[in-house]
Amino acid sequence: VRRGGLSLWLACSLLSLASCGSRQASVATPPAAGTTLAYEATLQRDLSALDVKLCFRGAMFGGLTAGRAEAMTRLRGLRWLAPEPQALTQVGGRIPIAPAQRAGCLAYTVDLREGGSLSALVTRVGDNLVASPNVWLLRPLLRPLSLSAKLVLNLPEGLRASLPFAPLDLEGKLYALPDSVFAFDSHAAFGPFVEHVVDEAGVRAHAALLGHFSAIDPRAIDSWLRGAVRIASGSDGRFPAPALHVLVLPGGGGDEPFGSVARGGGASVLLFVPDSFDAGRLSRDWVLPHELSHLLLPFVKHEDAWLAEGLATYYQEVLRARAGVIPAQEALANIAQALRSAQREGTGRSLCDESRAMHQTHAYRAVYWGGAAALLLADVALRKESAGKLTLDGLLTRIRREDRMTPEYGARELLARMDALSGSQTFSALAARCEVEPFPDFEATLRALGADATESAPEGAELSAIRAQIFAPQAFSK
Ligand SMILES: [Zn+2]
Q1: Cα separation values, 389 from 198, 235, 240, 466, 472, Å
Q2: Separation of 49 CA from ligand 1 center, angstroms?
Q3: pLDDT of the chain along its 478 residues, tens only?
Q4: Buried b (16+ CB within 10 A) or exposed e, 154-176
Q5: Dihedral sign for Cα atoms in the order 306, 310, 313, 316
Q6: Measured in angstroms, how far is the CA atom of residue 290 from the centroid of ligand 1?
């Protein structure tokens, strides 16, 4: 009884800050099936560590772990608060919790020294701190079917948080954590930055500029964010995530930005931007549209990167043309120029093998653009066979509706499903060729689409109607 009383009190104080009194009756009844997590995280003034209290109820499936195993080395001061205050140690990269223990509260401190891979990154940018929730939100070893999680965030005065999920209160202190935060990576920042928030067609989009960008006028950030939502909505008219969250950091590879999209809590993008970029260039750039185009498919296994990257690479051009950011002919010319150069950059492996070996061979462009070629050919074939009734856009919408959110999907499974949905063999043929052909044979289709026609006279191209369907502004299927 004493154990239950203490954990119920803590659960109440953490879970229901705003409405504890009114919820006491329901909290006092036996818990329904499912798992409840209540976090209270307090950021230290010097940004060196985050102190977390976590109270749980329900199944922990044997213990707790971080979103990335590498983050477990950051834990300090691990201890039980309830049912009995006592020391707690991690075993084999996890915090063991006996299956019979269905409630408890523990505390831990997360060391926020700089380092970590992109999906568990902790880094300082001036007075700001980037620290992925993968690092500081410990979670059950398995993701429960039914999960309810809340976070109370205590920040030093003058600092704010930029998180992929929206706060429930005006002070930015209380959050309901969507299940996707525990299924996927996400990004987060803390600091004295100004956060830009807009609502575009019902999508909450927000961005924090971390660090100094001498050429970016902060007043242009709102319209850049609106544009990003519009571009990424160009497949079927809807933004492919619940929200858009962008952290803009100085950097990027020389003359181009570098981005990394995560799906936890919405679309959460880390975008490294070169100092030479102004807001206009940022608005026309392909990197953010590429990252957001990844969300048109469910999460794809890393070894099948050709499909995920091919799709994002194809759509980075298609969606910018549809949004009117670049002319259709320029999008097609970009595709043609990139395909013709990338086909010479492979190692001679089949596209599927190239994809599996990509991190050893660094033949990234051959994989990205080889995948883009495969999807362009499939999209054209599908539209041609069905006289425009079936499109890649339409299939992606239906695939997303079926998304189980976990686990990751294989390319073969997704392509077989696309064939089943469209009643065609286009995508299984594509999967078969991927295993044997080095780079799809795109030349004839590209020419028929009018890729080499001058801007003033592309109408003569054999597939000009299909080109118009694919690239024309707002020509997306419903
Ligand atoms: Zn990508």
Answers
A1: 35, 15, 22, 11, 16
A2: 32
A3: 233 333 333 333 333 333 332 333 333 344 456 899 999 999 999 999 999 999 999 999 999 999 999 999 999 999 999 999 999 999 999 999 999 999 999 999 999 999 999 999 999 999 999 999 999 999 999 888 889 999 999 999 999 999 999 999 998 899 999 999 999 999 999 999 999 999 999 999 999 999 889 899 988 999 999 999 999 999 999 999 999 999 999 987 778 999 999 999 999 999 999 988 999 999 999 999 999 999 999 999 999 999 999 999 999 999 999 999 999 999 999 999 999 999 999 999 999 999 999 999 999 999 999 999 999 999 999 999 999 899 999 999 999 998 776 678 999 999 999 999 999 999 999 999 999 999 999 999 999 999 987 655 556 677 889 999 999 876 443 3
A4: ebeeebbbbbbbbeeeeebbbbe
A5: negative
A6: 6
Q: Which two tokens stand for residue 149?
A: 């999680």
For residues 54 and 106, is the Cβ–Cβ distance under 8 A? Answer: yes
Distance CA 233, CA 203 (A): 10
The alpha carbon of 64 and the centre of ligand 1 are apart by a number of angstroms equal to 31
Residue 349, burial from CB neighbour count under 10 angstroms (0-12, 13-18, 19+): middle
Contact residues for 362 (Cβ-Cβ < 8 A; gap 6+): none
CA of 167 to the centre of ligand 1 (A): 29
| Torsion over CA: 18, 20, 25, 28 (sign) | positive
The alpha carbon of residue 390 and the mean position of all alpha carbons in its chain are separated, in whole angstroms, by 27
Q: Tell me if 139 sits within 8 A of 182, measured CB to CB.
A: yes
Cβ atoms 304, 411 nearer than 8 A? yes
The dihedrals phi and psi of 405, each to the nearest 5 degrees, come to: 70, -20
Q: Which two tokens mark 182?
A: 């525990």
pTM here is 0.89
What contacts 24+ positions apart, CB below 8 Å, involve 383-386? Answer: 383/466, 383/469, 383/470, 384/463, 384/466, 385/424, 385/426, 386/422, 386/424
Distance 175 CA to ligand 1 centre (A): 29
Tell me how far the alpha carbon of residue 312 lies from the centroid of ligand 1, in angstroms. Answer: 6
**Ligand 1: distance of its center to the CA of 403 in Å?**
19
Look at residues 159, 162, 171, 138 and name the one whose alpha carbon lies nearest to residue 68.
138
The torsion angle over the Cα atoms of residues 251, 252, 255 and 261, rounded to 10 degrees, is -140
* Cβ–Cβ < 8 Å for 321, 473: yes
